Amino acid sequence: MGDSSILQLPSGPTALTAKIHPVVLFNICDSFIRRNEGQERVIGTLLGSYGGDGSLEIKNSYSVPHNESSDQVAVDIDFHRNMFDLHQRVNPKEVIVGWYSTGEGVSGSDALIQDFYGREVGNPVHLTIDTSFKSEKRAGILKAYVASTLSLGERQLAAQFQEIQLDLRMIEAERMGFEVLKKTAVDHLPNDLEGLEVSMQRLLGMVEDVIKYVDTVVEGHVAPDNAIGRYLADTVAAIPRIGRDAFDKLFNDSVQDLLLVLYLASLTRSQLALAEKLNTATQPL
Amino acid sequence: MAESGGNPPASAAAAAAATRSFAQAAAAAEQEMPLRVVRVDGLVALKIIKHCKECMPALVTGQLLGLDIGSTLEVTNCFPFPNRGGEDDEDLDADGANYQLDMMRCLREVNVDNNTVGWYQSTYMGSFQTVELIETFLNYQESIKRCVCIIYDPLRSGQGVLSLKALKLTESFMEVYRAQNLTGEKLREKGINWTNIFEEIRVDVYNSSLVAALMTDVETDAYVTQCDFDRLGLSTSPFLETNMEFLIECMEDLSLEQQRIQYYQRSVGRQQAQQSAWLQRRRAENAARKAAGEEPLPEEDPNNPIFKPIPEPSRLDGFLITNQISNYCGQITQFAGQSLGKVYLMDALKAEES
């Protein structure tokens, strides 16, 4: 009897951190753009995997049709199951980890949807993307929550959404290049030499920045900072010390190797052109 | 006055002619406007990269969905095909078709463009020019007039180059291939050689404003991205070595192919020599018979084995191998050019140091 009168609050912070892949963001934005007329937000399922250290990677997503009225939510469960089965066939390692919705923060009906996903997976993550960009700060656009129930004895009173840490895993996006992803239209993909030029210029810019900083410190305009100094020392020490002679040998060897390979490639090409001419010119008749 | 009076109808007729010809031109243009640009959604590119990278040692394929508008083909979404690993082929085929239909149905429900425009596949070092690729193209071509194949090379993309290519077969090659006329003479008639089997189409990337805004917002502040690390990496040998190995293998295949064609040419030459020798003998015999007052024998003998035509080997394999070789050469040249730049960068750094 005594138990039922105790209000049980969830205890302790959640240790869960979520890492999100860029393809999920793109998918959500796309489904938001393609929402039905009059629909205010889109929801969908998040797929991913759990790491050993309590971290969660959100790798994929698909949107699920739903209907919302004042206090009712209807999620197309058949669609959700079908789509999950189809995704499982391609990548069985990706399991349901939660759900997403567009819009700012958590709304009342989210508890119902959270409850539904709670039956699919132990502790579903709820991801929100503010597609109206209302919040000023960057952190306000993307948010992830887990829910815990507040219960009085046997009775469930409410669900409490707790925000969890959300990191972006942008390696794929970086590979592709933000230059390509943040413009609405890109005429052509950068080729290899252009890309190398950009990277080299960036490197040069960084080296110049460092030199400028060191100069100002040496001249006494800026107070020296030990931490930065150590970083710089570590960076310089990371370059292997090679004597001039050894380096020259290394340098010449690589250049000669590359030139040889280049020569071979162009030789092969001219052979091909020649073979082409000979093959079409020689006639058995 | 008479002149100016006579003018309007003439100009009207001219205008009518002009409009008609314009309409005709428009209709003609609509019929056969060549495909110039493939406009890929950022989402599609990321999805392809994800799928290809996750299944990396295995080569994977998937379907492209989008719209065909004028000279651009818009690819707005895609979905991966499950990996085939079973035994029963027929079962798997039906299974794959079902999967495809189910997926399309589901995607239509959430308002995704429900029109197949081609497929994508991953490749290893750009070794994609195969007979299977051509067959797949023809299969797709039966149901979709315009389709492309997007090829992604995960290994090359690890070097800091986004390696997305859109390919299609050239019309002229398709005609010849359908008619199975892959012999030397027919190919020469059509002016086809190994360079015009595949046609590469420019790839544009398109992002919705929403995505562009979001990406600008979440872009990392770091000065250095993974892409820069990939590009500036000094290790060159693994990539070059595999490339060279592939090149050498291809050269061997090509020389085998050449030998086959040479063998064919030699045997055709020998047959012709035999034929003319036989003909001469027959003519001499006929002259002798004429002198003796007998009927001359016919100058042709279909039953004689030396008149049986020798089947000509298909040139397709040779063409494809040549394409591969040229591809490898291109990759080596590009990569070596890049590496030379990096080596000289190191040299400059060293010169600064000492």
UniProtKB/TrEMBL annotation, chain A:
Answer yes or no on keyword Zinc.
Answer: no
List the CDD domains hit by this protein, alphabetically: MPN_eIF3f (cd08064)
Q: Where in the cell is it found?
A: Cytoplasm
In this protein, which residues make up the domain named MPN? Answer: 18-151
The UniProt keyword set, sorted, is: Cytoplasm, Initiation factor, Protein biosynthesis
Q: Could you give a GO molecular-function term held by this entry? A: translation initiation factor activity
Describe its assembly: Component of the eukaryotic translation initiation factor 3 (eIF-3) complex.
Q: Which family does it belong to?
A: Belongs to the eIF-3 subunit F family.
- Enumerate the HAMAP family for this protein: eIF3f
Q: What does this protein do?
A: Component of the eukaryotic translation initiation factor 3 (eIF-3) complex, which is involved in protein synthesis of a specialized repertoire of mRNAs and, together with other initiation factors, stimulates binding of mRNA and methionyl-tRNAi to the 40S ribosome. The eIF-3 complex specifically targets and initiates translation of a subset of mRNAs involved in cell proliferation.
Protein known as: Eukaryotic translation initiation factor 3 subunit F
TrEMBL record, chain B:
- Composition bias of kind Basic and acidic residues appears in 284-293
Segments of this protein annotated with the region Disordered: 284-309
**Span of domain MPN:** 38-173
Keywords, comma-separated and alphabetical: Cytoplasm, Initiation factor, Protein biosynthesis
The record's GO CC annotations read: eukaryotic 43S preinitiation complex; eukaryotic 48S preinitiation complex; eukaryotic translation initiation factor 3 complex; ribosome
- Report the locations given in the UniProt record: Cytoplasm
| Pfam families cross-referenced by the UniProt entry | eIF3h_C, JAB
Q: Name one GO molecular function term.
A: translation initiation factor activity
Please give the biological process terms from Gene Ontology that the record holds: formation of cytoplasmic translation initiation complex; positive regulation of translational initiation; response to abscisic acid; response to auxin; response to glucose; response to maltose; response to sucrose
Please give the CDD domains that the UniProt record associates with this protein: MPN_eIF3h
The main location is cytoplasm
| Signal peptide (residue range) | none
| Assembly and binders | Component of the eukaryotic translation initiation factor 3 (eIF-3) complex.
Q: Which family does it belong to?
A: Belongs to the eIF-3 subunit H family.
Q: What does the UniProt record say this protein does?
A: Component of the eukaryotic translation initiation factor 3 (eIF-3) complex, which is involved in protein synthesis of a specialized repertoire of mRNAs and, together with other initiation factors, stimulates binding of mRNA and methionyl-tRNAi to the 40S ribosome. The eIF-3 complex specifically targets and initiates translation of a subset of mRNAs involved in cell proliferation.
PANTHER family hit by this protein:
EUKARYOTIC TRANSLATION INITIATION FACTOR 3 -RELATED (PTHR10410)
Tell me the protein's name: Eukaryotic translation initiation factor 3 subunit H
